[in-house]
Structure formats: C-alpha cells, structure tokens
C-alpha cells in the first residue's frame, strides 16, 4: 500500500523562458476578482504535472511547438491569464489585462517515462527541473499568472507541467482551460466550452453580513503549537483501492454505511496522523475539507465560469477524542463540516472576507485535504492521447510541510483503480503513521496479504 520514492536523477536541458501572448489583440481592461478568489488562503502558486506516452505516428511532431501554438490561440479567449494581478484599495485583487503573456519553457530530458516507475505518484524526482521556477515569476502580484514547461523524453513521451496562480482559478477552472488548449492543439477553432468571467457572481453583498459560523478563519496565531520543521521530513504515497477502502469501512457503524469514501479515508487518516504526531490529549486538532461548491447555487453558477468556487469547512476535535473515540464519531464530524457548505455559507464567506480583511484559514494543528479525483485533469489530450498521470505535482502544504494532502485518482501495479494519498511527516511520525494505518487495514482477515504486497511493491518500485 505505501509507495516510497527511490531517487532517480536525470539531466534536463531547457531553452530560455519565453512569454506567450494572445494570438490576436485582446481587451485592455481591469477586471476585479471575486471575494472568494482573492482570499488569502488562495494567495499561492499550485503546480500540477501530466505525463504523456509517446506516439509513433507523432515522432516528427514536437509537443512543445504544438502546445505553444495552441496556447497563443486559447489566450484570445482566456485573455485575463495573459495579464498581471494588481492590489487595489482594501486589498482587493484585480487583473490588469495587459496581454503581457504567460511564461513558457521548452525542454528535453535524458530519461524515459518507464524510468519513473510502473505507478506514477508524488513526489516526483527532479521536480524543480521539470517545472523550473523562473526567477521573479513566483509572486502573486505583478507576475505571470501561468508558468508552463513541456519536457520531451527519450522515449517520445513528454511531461507537461504547469503552475497557476490560485487566486485566478481552482482545479475545475484550470482543467477547463487545459481542456481548451488540448482541443485547439487537436485542430478545433475554439473551445467547446467558452470561458465566463462574471466574478461579480461571488462578490460580497451590500451591505456584507456574516450569517454562518466560519471556524476555518479563527485567529489562532498566538496559540502554542508544535511547528513541524523542514528537517527530516519524509513523504510517502499510500494507495487505497477497493480492498483497502473495504477494510476501513469495517469500522463504520451501520447507520453510516452509505457514507462517502472521502469521509472514510479522511476520518482514518486524520486519526492515524494525530496518533503519529502525539499532541497533548487536550490539544484542539483540525481537518479542513476543500469543498467545490459549484453544485450549491440556485440559480447555478454560469457554465464556463473558471474562478474559484471553493470553501474550506473545518472539523474540530480534541486529540484525545480522535485517538480514542470510534471512527464513526470522527466521520460524523467530517460529514457535518462538509454539509455546512451551502449557497448561504458561500455568500457569508464572501462577506466575511470584506468585513475582516481577507484573513487566511488557520494552519494551527490543521490538516487540509483536497479531493481531486473528480477534477478530470486526466482527460486533457494535446493530441498524444490521455495522460498516464495528471494531478498534483507534490504532496501539498506549500511553505508548511505536512499541512495538506490530496486524494488523487490512480491505479496500482495490478491495474486496479483507487486513490493515491501523499503524506508528509517527520520520519519518526511517519513510522507511527504507517503502523497505525496497517493496524486498521490488517484487522480484516481477508486482506492479510497486504503487507506482503506492500513489500513487493516497495522492492519493485523505480521511484
């Protein structure tokens, strides 16, 4: 089940970074972001990565050239991406649609796709080479809103990596954009779904009024907490297929048997992670569930809208209860937190941002889970077919190691579909986490073979 990255080194040769501008003249204007977009929680850059297999029929085509040309065409429709963010009065973000362009890098690497292993999962070796951080490009303000690198591989395949400014869009929005790039790369004249801006749809009301509880934005900056250092951090990816999920469901009480896989996984991982970190029993622990709230609105959000429509509801429990109460209790906390997200909840968040000056969500003893299994990045096709992997480039957490993780759609080395979960913890805590998780899984007599399979997987993994 656990998949450990084994070092792989290779050389990447890059051409000089260039700015790709819209193929045609586009409007020069200022476009304000919504009050959901510009909250401090989204002031970050998000890297994602796609691995594509080679196609013998396309051996004379350069994927970087194909994508470069398609980008210029797509930016005519998505011209705000070619602009730069500015900060207005009271911290309000707006896009200066200047047409300056997005950063693009063409590269090649002396490695094959097969060398990355049979099962692709974070963390990826030499990630800093596969998505080069161009000096001066990583700011939120006055920086390119997209950074793209296309790296050709020896086998004829290629790696497409992109870093996007999260205030501009979310996972569903970037998938919409990349799908459009793929469509035009394959010969379409325009995207099948035209983009919709309309960020005023999620702007604060007048007058703003906070009508819901939003503990995710509690000010806990002065609370004493244990800071996880960058030193001696370890990342592993854990695969949860039908067998593993079934084993965890054995702990679910009868009245919760219809619960989602998200609830089962989140409750189990939150418990195992808490036990591994060994906080004080009285400490307040949190798990934040990133919720795509598009389905909550009536009338619905316009089709083609590519702004952020995210909420960060939080479940809260003492460490003692997480470690000792039944999994069903923890699942109910997670489920209730998610169920709080309604249209009114989203309106209340937008209003809170204006009233309180766009606070970040708290990171104190928090763990953030983002389920990207339905984002559908794995359907993005630039003409070489669907990717072998398309999702998060790392385990999450940004500048705070271990803060966050993703649920990533994947297959194991047997071809079984499931979910990969990258976890980052200090080495000592990681060992405890693995032990606790295995204890939960191995209580099912039908899966006693998991440890043997895990050892085989680790021994054969190329990563």
UniProtKB/TrEMBL annotation:
| Keyword field | Transferase
**GO MF:** transferase activity
Q: What is the name listed in the Swiss-Prot or TrEMBL entry for this protein?
A: Benzyl alcohol O-benzoyltransferase
Q: Which family does it belong to?
A: Belongs to the plant acyltransferase family.
Q: What organism is listed for this UniProt entry? A: Artemisia annua (Sweet wormwood)
């Amino acid at each position: 089940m656990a998949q450990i990255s084994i070092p792989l080194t290779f050389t990447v040769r890059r051409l000089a970074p260039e700015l790709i501008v819209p193929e045609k003249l586009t409007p020069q204007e200022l476009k304000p972001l919504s009050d959901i977009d510009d909250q401090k929680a989204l002031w970050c850059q998000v890297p994602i990565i796609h691995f594509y297999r080679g196609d013998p029929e396309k051996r004379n085509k350069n994927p970087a050239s194909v994508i470069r040309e398609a980008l210029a065409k797509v930016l005519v429709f998505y011209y705000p991406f070619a602009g730069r963010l500015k900060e207005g009065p009271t911290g309000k973000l707006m896009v200066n649609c200047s047409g300056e362009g997005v950063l693009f890098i063409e590269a090649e690497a002396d490695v094959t796709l097969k060398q990355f292993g049979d099962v692709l999962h974070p963390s990826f070796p030499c990630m800093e080479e596969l998505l080069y951080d161009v000096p001066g490009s990583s700011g939120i303000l006055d920086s390119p809103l997209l950074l793209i690198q296309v790296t050709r591989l020896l086998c004829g395949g290629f790696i497409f990596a992109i870093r996007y400014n999260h205030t501009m869009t979310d996972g569903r929005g970037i998938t919409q954009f990349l799908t459009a790039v793929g469509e035009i790369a394959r010969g379409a004249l325009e995207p099948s779904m035209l983009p919709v801006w309309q960020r005023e749809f999620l702007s604060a009301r007048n007058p703003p009024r906070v009508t819901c509880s939003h503990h995710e934005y509690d000010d806990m900056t002065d609370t004493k907490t244990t800071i996880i250092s960058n030193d001696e951090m370890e990342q592993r990816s854990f695969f949860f297929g039908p067998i593993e999920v079934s084993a965890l469901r054995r702990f679910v009480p009868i009245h919760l048997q219809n619960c989602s896989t998200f609830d089962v996984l989140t409750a189990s991982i939150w418990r195992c992670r808490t036990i591994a970190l060994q906080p004080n029993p009285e400490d307040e622990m949190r798990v934040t569930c990133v919720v795509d709230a598009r389905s909550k609105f009536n009338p619905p959000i316009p089709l083609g809208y590519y702004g952020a429509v995210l909420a960060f509801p939080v479940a809260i429990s003492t460490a003692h209860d997480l470690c000792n109460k039944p999994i069903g209790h923890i699942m109910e906390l997670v489920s209730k937190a998610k169920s709080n997200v309604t249209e009114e909840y989203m309106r209340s968040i937008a209003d809170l941002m204006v009233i309180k000056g766009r606070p970040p969500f708290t990171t104190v003893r928090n763990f953030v889970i983002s389920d990207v299994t339905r984002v559908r990045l794995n359907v993005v096709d630039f003409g070489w077919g669907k990717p072998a992997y398309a999702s998060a480039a790392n385990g999450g957490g940004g500048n705070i190691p271990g803060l966050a993780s993703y649920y990533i759609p994947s297959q194991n080395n047997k071809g079984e579909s499931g979910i990969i979960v990258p976890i980052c913890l200090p080495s000592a805590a990681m060992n405890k986490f693995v032990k606790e998780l295995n204890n939960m899984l191995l209580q099912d007599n039908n899966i006693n073979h998991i440890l043997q399979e895990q050892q085989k997987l680790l021994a054969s993994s190329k990563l």
